[in-house]
Amino acid sequence: MAAQGPRGRLASSLPRLLLGLAALAVPPPPAAAPEPPPAALRAGHAASSLPAAATAPRTRYLLYDVNPPEGFNLRRDVYVRIASLVKTLRKSENWVLVLPPWGRLYHWQSPDILQVRIPWSEFFDIPSLNRNIPVIEYEQFLAESGGPFIEQIYVLQGYAEGWKEGTWEEKINERPCIDQLMYSKDKHEYYRGWFWGYEETRGLTVSCLSVQGSASIVAPILLKNTSAQSVMLDRAENLLHDHYGGKDYWNTRRSMVFAKHLRVVGDEFRRKYLQSTDEADRTHYKEDWTQMKVKTGTALGGPYLGVHLRRKDFIWGHREDVPSLQGAVKKIRSLLEMLKLEKVFVATDAVEEEIELLKKLLPEMVRFEPSWEELELYKDGGLAVIDQWICAHARYFIGTSVSTFSFRIHEEREILGFDPKTTYNRFCGETEKNCEQPTHWKIVY
Ligand SMILES: Nc1nc2c(ncn2[C@@H]2O[C@H](COP(=O)(O)OP(=O)(O)OP(=O)(O)O)[C@@H](O)[C@H]2O)c(=O)[nH]1
Ligand SMILES: *[C@@H]1O[C@H](CO)[C@@H](O)[C@H](O)[C@H]1NC(C)=O
């Protein structure tokens, strides 16, 4: 059976779920209903009047979306799964992945800034992604396809009858939709839906696929059962990894290089406040990730302890594996002493009152505190990236139990070549009996 990664569950605590559902209202109608493009103008046909295009293989577009309550870092994991599907498809046909714009994430609640239709280039380096699989932004898809139409939408779901005990088999079938469809027909018989906040986008056909298996199980359907030029897989988190932790997994993960402008901000902060530079820390980064292969244990990291304290919905459920702030600070102090470090960088989503308490308990802590302008510029996602980048360069890192935010830091440090002992650490809850530490997922080249 394909592993789904260290966190098998698809987390949805109640408050997240409720907020996620509240966000599902159908967008208001556009001023004028769009006309469907004549077939010749649809995706990939645009160049067909050019003589050379007659022989070029037809481009097909894969789009996807994820269950609204899922956060930034789980979505990064879904990208890895979809990338392996694209690799499988490309063995037979010329498929391109359309990057789903970011937005309306439950955690991205900073007031007064509009966080929808955010292109991937705000957080990731597009040329780096392209060295793994061909990707384009949604806006480019719109420009290329001559109209805001997605020809086929498959909504992925489980099986109504559930999983049968003891028998695991990979399967995929067209089935009636189990949940209420998040798409509705307009008066032209086109499907409207969320579509990442692009109100003018329409689907031409929508159907549901029950699926149990890894991402590439969809490949035969896309290659044989539909000839649509653009296909969207909604609820793509239902697909598992083709091979979690394998070479293909790591290639895709390595290609998810953070956008340069965010790395620059993080590096500048390290230099200024943490006496941390790549030369001294032995964390040289190659712009071309395919050229980067660091021997494990060679990275030293900056002279500070990196901490990720996931709070908010992680403490509202009174989880046993998450410490109190007092407990976390006690651990931080003992680590500082053991590692003979003086500085500690703290990344956290804690609310203001908790931050104030933390400042009292740990006055020397260093945090990246954005000005309003910086928040507007980088947005919640960019700040998460900056925090992760700084944690990834620490001499020693300790994170929060089963937080995908912490998991992504583990991977970043694995890529940089840190000794696993300095990476796969987490806080323990005060009442936790068996505080199991995170799994080491060794990088594969
Ligand atoms: N800047 C910053 N943001 C954080 C931090 N911890 C959590 N967040 C925010 O809260 C979100 C946490 O959710 P994610 O980890 O992305 O979401 P998820 O995939 O549901 O993952 P977990 O809930 O952590 O397993 C992030 O996307 C950030 O926006 C942090 O230390 N620094
Ligand atoms: C795909 O086509 C094959 C062959 O016609 C058919 O057996 C199968 O049920 C189809 N699968 C789906 C999911 O529609």
UniProtKB/TrEMBL annotation:
Q: Which UniProt keywords apply?
A: Carbohydrate metabolism, Disulfide bond, Endoplasmic reticulum, Fucose metabolism, Glycoprotein, Glycosyltransferase, Golgi apparatus, Signal, Transferase
Gene Ontology MF: a single term: peptide-O-fucosyltransferase activity
Coiled-coil blocks: none
Transmembrane stretches, start-end: none
* E.C. code: 2.4.1.221
UniProt pathway annotation: Protein modification; protein glycosylation
Q: Where is the signal peptide?
A: 1-33
> Heme as a keyword?
no
- List the catalytic activities from the record: L-seryl-[protein] + GDP-beta-L-fucose = 3-O-(alpha-L-fucosyl)-L-seryl-[protein] + GDP + H(+); L-threonyl-[protein] + GDP-beta-L-fucose = 3-O-(alpha-L-fucosyl)-L-threonyl-[protein] + GDP + H(+)
Q: Mostly located where?
A: endoplasmic reticulum
What family is this protein classified in? Belongs to the glycosyltransferase 68 family.
Described purpose of this protein according to its UniProt entry: Catalyzes the reaction that attaches fucose through an O-glycosidic linkage to a conserved serine or threonine residue in the consensus sequence C1-X-X-S/T-C2 of thrombospondin type I repeats (TSRs) where C1 and C2 are the first and second cysteines of the repeat, respectively. O-fucosylates members of several protein families including the ADAMTS, the thrombospondin (TSP) and spondin families. Required for the proper secretion of ADAMTS family members such as ADAMTSL1 and ADAMTS13.
- Name the UniProt record assigns to this protein: GDP-fucose protein O-fucosyltransferase 2
Per UniProt, what is the name of the gene that codes for the protein in this document?
Answer: POFUT2
